[in-house]
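Fold it.
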Amino acid sequence: MASKSSSHPALSAADGFANGSTDTLLLIGRVLLGWLFVAAGWGKIMNMAGFAGYLTSLGAPAPGLLSNIVPFIEFGMGVCLILGLATRYAAIVVFLFCLIATALAHRYWEYPAAQQAAQYTNFLKGISFMGASLIVLVTGAGKFSVDAALAKKITCTGHNRPSRHVEPRRRAGITPVPEQPVFACNGAAPYHRADSVAGSG
């Protein structure tokens, strides 16, 4: 079935590429976004005293405490984005992190005129990362991620087995109620939980 065009045909020539490369593009996008936070977080970890001084200059509350917590949060959410682990939670944390950081550090209108252009650029970067995090929240990690591997593992181990209620009912002479089919992993044929008793006896 042909997929619906995203816009007027003249404006949707890239649909085929985007639809056919969705998971690869999501992986690349996650790595590019996550690497920023890994690098920034690592830089703060390597210079916590300097980061504490910066927070003090901004008037942040408890700068000593925050300087020991924030770098690891920033580094961790970057790692989660790159690996695609707890991706939607990481996207929420990124959004909140950038919201707070932008509001705290990049109120460009409060800076001297000579610094406002640079701070305005930093302000725009912050809100653009917020937008990117919302996109990740909606799309999820894609196939090439730890999240996808965990979901597949749970599907394979948690659902591809006979119901524990089927065998006792068969022994009691009660015909088991057919259950919904569950597709086996790795491309195997569809498997019904009740199939294990259908041909026995």
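The two ends are 44 Å apart (CA to CA).
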